[in-house]
């Protein structure tokens, strides 16, 4: 009686297929195909995987799967042929490797530089076309005070010019400003203006009352 390996090999040779062609179509490594044809189960993985290989190989050759499985069960003896996991089986044929080469590293650096450059241009463009942010923490709108002076405090974009009632005040590196302002009447209007280097400005007004 012919074995599974003999049947596979004879059918392959009759159809003029090489092991390389079978490997390419079935994705089963050549050394495993050769072991199947030689019935060399010592060089093959566990029975479950062998059954899958045989079915796949038989399907490629046009051999009935049930017939192959029946012959395999007859030929294969688990005790006589203990399963072995091959290194070639643990590394699939189609596994891709990503290699870091100098050219790829240079390409990555150039890409990062280009992205950083365009990000900078975008931020500069936004500053050019948009007004700077302006937040006033103190005073609040409609605040009533008992003294004739108060502290104007807030934040804006760095590198902007801030004025309080047309008097320029200092702005730190984080955009924070703080200035003491004199009140001249019972009702005072305090105007805070932030102007960017491109001439765009934001303005906030606060009305402050002096308690009599």
The count of DSSP E runs of length 2 or more, i.e. the number of strands, is 8
CATH topology of the largest domain: 434 Repressor (Amino-terminal Domain)
Number of helices: 7
**Can you list the strand order of the major beta sheet?**
2-8-7-4-5
Kindly provide the name of the CATH class of the largest domain: Mainly Alpha
> Mean pLDDT score, rounded?
84
Number of domains: 2
| Proportion in β-strands | 15-25%
- Helix amount: 40-55%
Task: Name the structural class.
Answer: alpha+beta
Major beta sheet summary: 5 strands, mixed
Cα Rg: 41 Å
| Name given to the CATH homologous superfamily of the largest domain | lambda repressor-like DNA-binding domains
- Name the helix and strand elements from N-terminus to C-terminus, one letter apiece: HHHHHHHEEEEEEEE
Structural overview:
With 212 residues, this protein is of the alpha+beta class. The protein folds into 2 domains: 87 residues, Orthogonal Bundle (434 Repressor (Amino-terminal Domain)), CATH 1.10.260; 77 residues, Sandwich (Immunoglobulin-like), CATH 2.60.40.10. 40% of the residues lie in helices and 23% in strands. It is built from 7 helices and 8 strands. The chain has a 5-stranded mixed sheet, with no helix packed on it. It has a 3-stranded antiparallel sheet with strand order 1-3-6, with no helix packed on it. It is rod-shaped. The chain starts with a helix and ends with a strand. The model has no long low-confidence stretch (mean pLDDT 84).
């Amino acid at each position: 009686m012919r074995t599974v390996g003999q049947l596979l090999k004879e059918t392959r040779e009759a159809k003029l297929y090489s092991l390389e062609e079978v490997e390419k179509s079935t994705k089963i490594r050549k050394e495993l195909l050769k072991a199947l044809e030689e019935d060399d189960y010592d060089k093959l993985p566990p029975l479950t995987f062998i059954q899958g290989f045989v079915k796949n190989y038989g399907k490629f050759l046009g051999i009935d799967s049930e017939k192959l499985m029946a012959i395999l069960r007859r030929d294969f003896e688990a005790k006589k042929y203990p399963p072995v996991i091959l290194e070639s089986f643990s590394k699939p044929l189609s596994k891709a490797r990503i290699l870091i080469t100098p050219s790829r590293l240079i390409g990555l650096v150039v890409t990062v530089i280009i992205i950083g450059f365009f990000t900078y241009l975008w931020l500069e463009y936004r500053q050019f076309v948009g007004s700077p942010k302006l937040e006033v923490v103190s005073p609040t709108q409609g605040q009533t005070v008992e003294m004739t002076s108060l502290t104007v405090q807030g934040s804006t974009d760095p590198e902007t010019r801030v004025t309080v009632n047309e008097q320029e005040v200092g702005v730190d590196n984080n955009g924070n400003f703080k200035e003491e302002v004199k009140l001249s009447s019972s009702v005072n209007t305090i105007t805070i203006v932030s102007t960017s280097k491109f001439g765009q400005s934001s303005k906030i007004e606060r009305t402050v009352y002096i308690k009599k």
